[in-house]
Amino acid sequence: MTSPAKADGSPRHLEDTSSVASEHLPQHVEALQRPLTRTRLGLFPARWRLALRKSRQHLPSLLGRRERVSLPASLPARSCSGLQLVSEPRRCSVRLLPKGIVAGKKKIMEDTALSLGTIDVSYLSSSAECTVTRCKHSSEEWGECNSRPTVFRSATLKWKETLLGRNRPFVGRCCYVCTPQSWDKLFNTNIPSLGLRNVIYINETHTRYRGWLARRFCYTLFVQERDVHKSMFANNVMENVLNNSRVQNAIIQESSESSAVNGLDQLESRNINRTKKKARRILQEMVANISPSLIRLTGWVLLKLFNSFFWNIQIHKGQLEMVKAATELNLPLVFLPVHKSHIDYLLLTFILFCHNIKAPYIAAGNNLNIPIFSTLIHKLGGFFIRRKLDERPDGQKDILYRTLLHVHVEELLRQQQFLEIFLEGTRSRSGKVACARAGLLSVVVDALYSNASPDVLIIPVGISYDRIIEGHYTSEQLGKPKKNESLWSVARGVFRMLRKNYGCVRVDFAQPFSLKEYLDCQNQKPLPVPLSLEHTLLPAVLPSRPNYIVGESTEAALPDSRDLSYEPLRRQLIANLAEHIMFTANKSCAVMSTHIVACLLLYRHRRGIDLSKLVEDFFSMKEEVLARDYDLGFSGNSEDVVMHAIHLLGNCITITNTSRNNEFFITPNTSVPAVFELSFYSNGILHVFFKEAVIACSLHALLNKRHKNDISGILPNVISQEQLVRKAASLCYLLCYEGTVSLPCQLLCQVCHEAIEQFIQYGLLLVAEEEQEDISSSLTEQNWEKNIPEPLSWRSDEEDEDSDFGEEQRDCYLKVSQSLEHQQYISFLQKLLGPLLEAYSSTAIFIHNFSGPVRETECLQKLHKYLISRTEKNVAVYAESATYCLAKNAIKVFKDMGVFKETKQKRESILELSSTFLPHCNRQKLLEFILSFIVL
Q: Where is pLDDT greater, at 544 or 351?
């Protein structure tokens, strides 16, 4: 049987050549200077890779396509920045054979995850179609893993044997509490075992034809066989919207306001005609006209382009089966992906097109409404909307525009069309999932309540990239204004993409759930009273604050009636829905190899690490990710995956060949802006450990407070569990714009309690059972506890009344494990939040000399310059704390907490210190509160 073929008909496998003697290694290692161009995974010659493996230094192998590399004879200097191609003294051509893949199995590249070198079967799905063989490897053999020293081994030592044999977790299940019927509706036990598929790997087996001609033109045949035709999409949308009675009333109202401004006493038909033309111009931007022919052509072009600069685009076949099953229910679907790149717009449509699912109508910002490009977007299903849906340039409510948008969405849902909405509103500049902007989601909810459709199915989507095409937004993180999109910038970006390798992409579709079921479920249970940071966080910062001040601006309780005409109830309901969706989409995002390597280098080995040790820690961390039910966007031999990530990180990493056993020494570049780029990638894994990092920093705050107050009682390292829960909850509120640990249907303090129980299970915290009677009662005294609002209590009254062990649970005390490896793990978790806490503490220092009132934009610019200056003067511990996103989030938190008093003047926000923080002592308490969580 022949090997799988590429689009051009050439075989997919590569052949290996002879090896080179290991004594020639130093000469080859010197040539790490010239950049790799048009290569996959760093493309190292097989002879050098074998030699390096003999010295336990493993370089990446190339999988899945034939490359011929001509190598120059010159040898540059010994050190380099970023991973470069190793040269040899003579010119040669290389063809490599992927290890661990059974030759002749055509479906391996299609059905398995990315394999970098040897396939690690412990991370592959149990698909029956996937056939692999495990090559022996000294550092990852089954019997040796428990004996190897690792950073995280002791934290989950008891799970290690289980983790080595576990399959990939299935991510993206909907909330059982809020949508119990949807939980079982489209899911079955066979779905998780269906495995992964590379969408951009297309050959003759994906068409109805066979033979050399089919192999040569398989892309063309594939796109021609996709099920896409004009009748699938909406028709007469513009006329139906304009003839809608609500739009007619909005036109009359707009015309009457215009007549009143002009001093006219009666409406004139000329004003109405003018308003109708205005409405038609708005709809010309808003209404998309999908062209099936252009979708086919774009699908063919994207197959070519994606194969040129992406190694693969992986999807889970089980997730696509749920989406296909959802399409058979004859209900509109709303896809809500995370937003990390402009490629997101095309990526989702391309994947659905390849699986015969009709293209969604994509809501895009009007900043992309540029000549030629806008026409292409319209033909592919995109429609442009304003960033602020209901505001005119003069700041007044634009009733006409909002009515047109509502009726347009209702019309699409009435015709059972699919929608694609980016809740974040803009691409994430920090690598973390941003807070949701529920403007367009509220339009979908209103359309459902107006009976435009019997139901709407919501599908959160997680997207992960090895490398972001836009360039990691370092210029914007330095405070430079965002450049407006143009046709030239789009063309320049395409040509730039063709010259680089962007690694792998992973797209995960979460389980569809019924919007109607979610809303009905919310109507049947009491909606908690929304509390601002002024009520949740401020009592922890200022314990001595009088109670009457805490209750000054307490929001009124939401009524028992579920009438959505009551605006506070409607906003809270939609905000909770948006938070549910973003939490699920973020949980669905796979962790990529660049995320793990960047995180290890920044927060575990900031001063550098040997390559062999980095590989060991990488292996351990990917086990930890799987243990927390997050998926990985890669599989395979750890050495090859690490080298793949190092190559993609480029100039953010410096590689030096040391004289000690020819060891590679990997050092992160901690200067600005390279450290911003590393932080961007590292934030891709932050959500996995965010909850545990909060507990670790709260542990430090409590222990540091005890030592600072010089408590001379018994057992100074013992802390109260309830005290730890409350401290962790206050830190979650402080970092509410940086990460989310709980769903709206969960109690935050209960989630923190469960995280502490995990620490106990890991062995990081020990229950101080024998010392319970010796602990002083002063240990649990908290002056600020009386000011904590009742809804924040992590134990309900019913639990205390029904439990026979309520008092024992309330008096539970813990002590931190003194094991060296446990201490290292806790230190790693604390460092994860170091940049965030340093940015917030620096903001607290900044307001000591704050003189207001001042415009918010000006205040933000001054704060960001102050953060940058701390980095330039080497005052900052973490240079990545000076990003513009962190400065912006710190200002938001301080406004919500009541540090700043905000007033509106025209369309600008004016900030000044509130009366609470005018005294210098209160500003100092705020600084001390934040500093208590920081490990110096």
A: 351
Confidence of residue 82 (pLDDT cuts 50, 70, 90): very low
> What is the value of pTM for the model shown?
0.80
Q: What is the DSSP letter of 139?
A: T
Burial readout 12-31 (b: 16 or more C-beta within 10 A, e: otherwise): bbbebbeebebeebeebbbb
**pLDDT beyond 60 at 116:** no
Sign (positive or negative) of CA dihedral 716, 718, 721, 724: positive
CB within 8 A of 314, min separation 6: which ones?
113, 114, 196, 197, 198, 199, 504, 505, 506, 507, 633
Which one has a higher pLDDT value, 815 or 789?
Answer: 815
For residue 904, what are the β-bridge partners?
Answer: 909
From the list 903, 433, 324, 398, the residue with the least C-alpha distance to 690 is 433
Question: For residue 706, which of 725, 719, 695 has the smallest C-alpha distance?
Answer: 719
Token code pair at residue 528: 């908690």
Closest CA to 313 of 257, 344, 351, 265: 351
Label residue 259 by pLDDT band (50, 70, 90): low
Average pLDDT value for residue range 74-89: 35
What are the beta bridge partners of residue 564? none
State the Cα angle at 77 between 71 and 82, rounded to 5°: 75
Give the pLDDT band of residue 359 (cuts 50, 70, 90): very high
What is the spatial distance between Cα 153 and Cα 860, in angstroms, rounded to a whole number? 43
Amino acid at 889: N
Q: Which amino acid makes up residue 782?
A: Q
> 741, 691 in Cβ contact below 8 A?
yes
Do 139 and 599 form a contact (C-beta atoms < 8 A)?
no
Q: Could you tell me if residue 786 is left (phi over 0), alpha (psi between -120 and 50 degrees) or otherwise beta?
A: alpha
CA–CA separation, 91 and 238 (whole Å): 64
